[in-house]
User: What shape does this take?
Amino acid sequence: MPAIGSRGGSASLVRASLAIHQPPTSLEGGLGGRIGQVEFQFNPSQLQLTRSASWSAQPSVGYARGAPPEFVGAQPASLELEVFLDASAKPGASKVQKKVDLLLSCCEVYPPSLSTNRPSPPWVRFSWGSFNTVQFVAHVDSVSATYTLFSPTGEPTRATCNLTLTEVPLATKGQNPTSGALSARRVHRVVAGDTLQSLAWREYGDATGWRVIAEANGIDDPMRLATGTELLLPAINDTGG
Assistant: This one.
């Protein structure tokens, strides 16, 4: 497969990243608030993207070499990628282990989700500039970490992580009787200190998304949020982000 990008530090001004989000609380839910993000120090040297379709053929005596197949549906995409982490130039840095732990947590149940009807590991979204083909909501099937360099105290300073992501299909807008409505939402109860900007940053990683929250809740004055008010927070795919 041809290489995409480069590990060279100056090969690209746009860095790939993996955003890690809270899982939804229902089957119709979209991405929840951002838990963390792994910024790639070096862009991947290659990405392996797989898409497949399912076909079915019923035996029939009318065909000498088998009946024509019938398309029965598309399968979620899968993406395999490598994350290279290196802090060897910064003695005492613990960023490598923290990032590896964050990636490994994507295969463990997100603790706050235990109190919901759908305990789940976090969901993720890989992004790399304008490469839209690989930018989809996904869950992490596997993470393998290989540590290749350590400090005198045994702290890992270099590691390579191989990830396998599987696309999470989201409902297409307008395919249900409530066509035109937001495809998925979360509910947040306002607490002291909350602002629309802070909620947008927490949910989408972008404070300018406050306008979407305001519109979804019919808020005319974004500076006045009453404590205890329940706000609908549109899923990230409804924000245009």
In short: Confidence is low (pLDDT under 50) at residues 1-6, 8-12, 172-184.
